[in-house]
Amino acid sequence: MTSREIIRELLAKRLPDRMGLNEHFWGKLPEMGWDKQGVPPGTDYVSRFGLDIRSAAWLYLPGPRLDLWETVAETDEWVVRRDDWGATHKNWKNRSGTPEHVAFMINSPEVWYREFREPFRAMRLSERINLDQLRPKCAAAMATDKFVTYDGLCFFEELRRILGDEYMLEALLTEKEFIHDFVSALCEKYIEYYEWMFREVGIPDGIYIYEDLGYTRAAFCSPQCHREMILPYHKKLFGLFKDHRLPIIFHTCGDFRVHLPAIIEAGADCIQAMEAKTGMNVLDLAKQYAGKLCWMGNVDVRVLESGDRAAIAREALAKLNGMRALREPYIFMSDHSITPAVKVADYEYMLELYRQNCRY
After folding, report:
1. pTM of the entire structure?
2. Which of 215, 198, 209 minimizes the C-alpha distance to 158?
3. DSSP class of 152
4. What would the pLDDT profile of 100-131 be if each residue is shown by its tens digit?
5. 67 DSSP 8-state letter
6. Tens digits of per-residue pLDDT, 19-61?
7. DSSP labels for 88-117?
8. Where are the domains of the chain?
9. Torsion angle defined by CA atoms of residues 24, 298, 146 and 244, in that order, rounded to the nearest 10 degrees
10. Domain 3-62+131-357, what fold?
């Protein structure tokens, strides 16, 4: 079976010839040491490591205020920029890392209604996004035997980057009318975006949604808050994907276990990444939700970083053999992404263990 066929079967909650294989990698891995281990800049990781899933397009909504774009400060190491949502972030230039939240213009309902709401609703995507750059990349991806996805942020993640974590979490509880109005506008624009992509670029094999709902110790909000403020919009957007018979891979960092029933209800077909350091174990989850999801990830990257081959083998084989015994659909992957602390040879050793033990 081809990669495309394998992943389609797994996302349909069926068992093909083998388990799937996917991975995320930190940006600038070659510049941070992998170039000295035989992985030069520009390496196609999907081809190099024989992965099954290829992202053809990364989608996120532009903001409505181009006049706000500004480089606030810059050094050789980092840059601070304000974007078209009026959100200011600090980013490293030469290595990867989580952006630092600096400042956010939308810090009250009044600012949203007065300065952003109508410009955003009136914004023409065709004037902000160049599909001519996406068409050849997507066509080339679809011409292969890989499972091809369009990847994009979703509502909780958009709120975080536009409002900042602190105000977002407060507003979810104290400014519900504003949050509903804001997320409704985001949802309508995302539906417009995906419909435009499907019509003008083509329909992929599936959708990969990024929606970080948790941190190391817990979820960011309660299940009740999630169901009231986010789930209705997940259902609406995911309904569009289901209308096109597109399976949905749902990425969330952190401990999101309290939200799993709502994620399933929304229509997700696969969950990723199940960070081991948050206490999650894919075997436990697969038993609890047997037959309801495909599972991707949960291989503890800290074990890979250790370089201890015996520990790597224990970790990898526990997930591979365990999921085979449970007869649950599984895509083998780290519990988040491969960091510069992982040696290429150790990652390749783990892949060899996968290939020796991936058959159902």
Report:
1. 0.97
2. 209
3. E
4. 999 999 999 999 999 999 999 999 999 999 99
5. G
6. 999 999 998 999 999 999 999 999 999 999 999 999 999 998 9
7. EEEEESSS--PPEEEEES--SHHHIIIIIH
8. 3-62+131-357, 63-122
9. -100
10. TIM Barrel (3.20.20)
